[in-house]
User: Which sequence fits this backbone?
């Protein structure tokens, strides 16, 4: 067979192969172009109810917890209450060894008895000195009358000058005796006053010793349940600088509170009296209810995060919930009935384009600066999927939000519109899908 004949025979095969090769190349080219086009994840605008909530973690605490301390130091002799013991006001919880305090009471009582006996003696001395003073004063009056009479007789020439001088000297001695008696009485009265003060001091020392002895018996100050016992028999309790905590008594476990740590950005939306719900790990399928009673104005700052304790009162009639359990609290802060719902991921989507191209789109669709950048007044931009799969920016003003949807207040948007929530470019492999509201609970926006 000649070369020409061979060519003619395989000509059709060559043509078919070339055509197939061209088709493959063209297909690969268009497939590459298609893969380079961005892929979008979308969500549909709906209608329904939105309840904005604040979610926080807290701790369950009794309504009133009293720390029972020991006023005096000593060795624990007896313990009459343990964990979970129901106690009454005035019930004995523990007894410290009272021996040393009983000795102090005995000593203080003896000192008081001595002081009182000394007081009686000094009081008798004062009476003696008062009698001596009265006698000296009476004698002085008598001597004064005798001296006056002697002076008159001297002037009449009846008595001699020597006799008159002796009478006058006796009167002066009587006056001196009066002054001496007065001084002695004053000294006795001062000593008596000092003895009275000493009796008062000894009485105070006895009262203090008896009080210390009384405090060796540790009593419950309230009706409640013992939730902590920090002592054992034989343990030494030292109350030198401050009263050690030996028991903790919860007053009423049927009425308790949750201390929920709420972020500073959420406290302004929480209203006192609003009903709340919470759950605990011990009963994961149960939802408990309570009511906000207070927001304590005592901030806690941890790594620049400021939180406030929101107090939630609730009833615990079966004592099902225990002190110290972790509570996961949901506090409603707003409700919108039958409103247009924007899926939350759509609010955080930003297209992958240059700033210039982005501004051109904003200008083309009359998107204000407030909606495109600053989000003033709740205005921001979402991206709608157009009929030709093009991205259309829409300015919307939003209201309250939950973890899924946000309320539409104003904006050219209808139920059923398709919004872009993320974009993936297969050529670059990038994906700008975002998780909305990371690190903060939903609330008014």
Assistant:
């Amino acid at each position: 067979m000649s070369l020409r004949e061979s060519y003619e025979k395989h000509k059709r095969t060559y043509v078919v192969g070339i055509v197939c090769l061209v088709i493959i190349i063209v297909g690969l080219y268009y497939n590459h172009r298609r893969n380079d086009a961005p892929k979008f994840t979308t969500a549909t605008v709906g209608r329904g109810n939105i309840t904005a909530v604040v979610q926080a973690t807290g701790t369950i605490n009794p309504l009133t917890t009293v720390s029972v301390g020991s006023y005096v130091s000593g060795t624990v002799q007896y313990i009459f209450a343990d964990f979970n013991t129901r106690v009454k006001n005035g019930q004995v919880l523990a007894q410290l060894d009272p021996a040393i305090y009983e000795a102090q009471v005995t000593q203080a009582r003896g000192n008081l008895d001595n002081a009182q006996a000394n007081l009686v003696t000094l009081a008798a001395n004062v009476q003696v000195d008062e009698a001596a003073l009265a006698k000296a004063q009476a004698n002085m009056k008598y001597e004064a009358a005798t001296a006056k009479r002697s002076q008159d007789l001297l002037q009449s020439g009846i008595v001699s000058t020597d006799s008159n001088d002796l009478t006058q000297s006796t009167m002066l001695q009587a006056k001196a005796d009066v002054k001496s008696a007065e001084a002695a009485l004053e000294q006795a009265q001062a000593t008596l006053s000092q003895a009275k003060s000493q009796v008062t001091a000894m009485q105070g020392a006895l009262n203090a010793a008896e009080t210390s002895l009384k405090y060796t018996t540790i009593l419950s100050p309230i009706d409640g349940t013992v939730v902590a016992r920090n002592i054992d028999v034989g343990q030494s309790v030292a109350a030198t600088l401050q009263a050690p905590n030996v028991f903790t008594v919860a007053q009423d476990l049927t009425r308790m509170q949750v201390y929920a740590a709420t972020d500073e950005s959420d406290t302004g939306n929480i209203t006192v009296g609003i009903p709340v719900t919470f759950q605990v790990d011990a009963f994961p399928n149960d939802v408990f209810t309570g009511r906000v009673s207070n927001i304590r104005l005592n901030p806690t700052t941890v790594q620049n995060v400021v939180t406030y304790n929101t107090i939630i009162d609730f009833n615990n009639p079966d004592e099902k919930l225990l002190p110290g359990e972790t509570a996961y609290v949901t506090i409603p802060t707003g409700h919108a009935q039958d409103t247009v719902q924007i899926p939350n991921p759509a609010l955080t989507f930003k297209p992958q384009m240059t700033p210039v191209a982005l501004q051109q789109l904003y200008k083309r669709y009359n998107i204000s600066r407030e909606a495109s950048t600053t989000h003033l007044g709740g205005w921001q931009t979402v991206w709608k999927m157009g009929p030709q799969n093009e991205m259309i920016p829409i300015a919307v003003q939003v209201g309250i939000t939950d973890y899924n949807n946000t309320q539409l207040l104003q904006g050219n948007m209808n139920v059923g519109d398709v919004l872009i929530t993320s974009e993936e470019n297969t050529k670059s492999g990038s994906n700008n899908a975002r998780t909305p509201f990371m690190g903060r609970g939903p609330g008014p926006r």
